[in-house]
Amino acid sequence: MKRAKWLVPTLYILFLMLPIYWLISMSFKTTNEILGAFSLWPREFTPDNYITIFTDPTWYNGYFNSLTYVVVNTLLSVSVALPAAYAFSRYRFLGDKHLFFWLLTNRMAPPAVFALPFFQLYSAVGLFDTPMAVALAHCLFNIPLAVWILEGFMSAVPKELDETAYVDGYSFWRFFIRIFLPTIAAGIGVVMFFTFMFSWVELLLAKTLTAVEAKPIAATMTRTASTSGYELGLLAAAGTLTIIPGAFVIYFVRHHIAKGFALGRV
Amino acid sequence: MIGKTTNQRAWFLVLPVVVLVAFNALIPLMTVVNYSVQETFGNNVFFFEGVKWFEQILHSERFHASLLRQLSFTGIILLIEIPLGVAIALAMPKRGPWVSVCLVLMALPLLIPWNVVGAMWNIFALPDIGLLGRMINGMGFDYNFTQQPLAAWFTTILMDVWHWTSLVVLLAYAGLSSIPDAYYQAARIDGASSWSVFRYIQLPKMKRVLTIAVLLRFMDSFMIYTEPFVLTGGGPGNATTFLSIDLVKIALGQFDLGPAAAMSLIYFLIILVLSWIFYTLMMRNEEQ
């Protein structure tokens, strides 16, 4: 029984990898092969689908658009969430608990509810079809999440650290940037992982707020699938490429993630 | 929570967050409230209708059906993903080089855009070109998720389990790795069975992270839209039309803004109330 323990995670990972394998394998097949003969691996191996994506601007611009709003959103969310989380973890102030819960309720708002009003709001302020619109809109769920996680990390830091620094004559901001932020670096890494993740995978709002110029890659995929027949190989290749940024991010935070989870709230 | 000083100037620190979130939350919310009490015949002419749309939605069979489907879906995936995630976390190695490998591979589904998840499962499960579809049909079952409601449900649930169980695993694993080795040694000396180690040491230590896991999975599965929409389009028929899919159909498909807005508010309120119950339970746990 003890010896068979490794089987559980192994089988689970195998189950996780199967659909991903199928996607990657399909991305190297020709349309004929996909629709014609059923094969477990590409018989006529072709990189054509990837060549199409890397040479057609509507495809590779999609990647730039997605990465732009995700990075802007991550930096924006984390930088405004840091001081706020500090306030929640250290001070009592008028309406603090209500404010905290109100922030969390925004994490609970279904994007489907906000799709149409968001379209109208961002059209009215003239940001429609820009990566900035998506970056700002994703703040709706990413800022509350960032505050929530960071507050957990910060509360784990003893208050004596702050008091000693103030006695030593540090101003608030100097203490905050020079001493406090390095102390919770692991937490900031975990939060950036989560904000990146939720902004990268969300599509309903990103699709609603863009038309041509700022279209995210995932939306380009949907359009291709529906208009130019059913080019499954191309779709699979684009899908495979969307997995790569995520895989990179996980690789960089792999040591922090277990520790970070344990210290923080998420 | 102990040892906080009262400082009203802390408001300045939270101000940027409040401004940004309020811009994104309050203005659209007020737009929705505005639509929910009005009728329009186009050309931006609106008439006040009071609570007519709310009554209509609350009495509509269609809404009841979507809500029931949504509750069943959320209930089923919670019942599968939480125990499965805990079981996998318990079976993971505690330290060593394999931990990183496991965590990286397990986290992978979490970072795939949701419509890619749907598209991936579509081509994976199709009975003619998909590996899963071929396998199930090869075992002698008649399986076609684009035509059979039961098969569509099975595929949607399997997809969600594939997509999100890892989140539960990561959280549960984090909870487990915070248990000091001394606890296990003490249990071994006392001759505790593996069940009582789980019941009296591991489960209490995981309580907090598991509450978060339940809360996150509840909220996100209740809002699910993109994955089932890409996979099944809400069909066959209405078999997998969950609340968000139904809402988008009404709002953007039929452009019935009033009913859609009223439905949005009811929908939001349901999530809010259920999440508030989870949240207070969680806070009570933390205080203990």
Number of helical stretches of at least 4 residues of chain B: 12
Give the largest interface: A-B, 96 and 94 residues
CATH fold-level topology of the domain at 65-216 and 244-263 in chain A: MetI-like fold
CATH architecture of the largest domain in chain B: Orthogonal Bundle
What does this structure look like?
The complex is a heterodimer of chains A (266) and B (288). Chain A is an all-alpha fold and 266 residues long. Chain A has a domain at 65-216 and 244-263: Orthogonal Bundle (MetI-like fold). Chain A contains 14 helices and one strand. Chain A has helices at 7-27, 31-35, 48-55, 57-90, 96-107, 111-124, 131-137, 139-155, 160-167, 172-183, 185-201, 204-208, 217-227, 232-263; one strand at 91-92. The two termini of chain A are 32 Å apart. Chain B is mainly α. Chain B has two domains: 12-50, no CATH class; 62-287, MetI-like fold, CATH 1.10.3720. A two-stranded antiparallel ribbon of chain B has the order 2-3. Chain B starts with a strand and ends with a helix. Classes of the chains: A mainly alpha (266), B mainly alpha (288). Chains A and B meet through helix 1, helix 4, strand 1, helix 5 and helix 6 of A and strand 1, helix 1, helix 3, helix 4 and helix 5 of B.
What would a concise description of this structure say?
Chain A is mostly helical and 266 residues long. Chain A is built from 14 helices and one strand, in the order H-H-H-H-E-H-H-H-H-H-H-H-H-H-H. Chain A is globular and about 75 Å long.
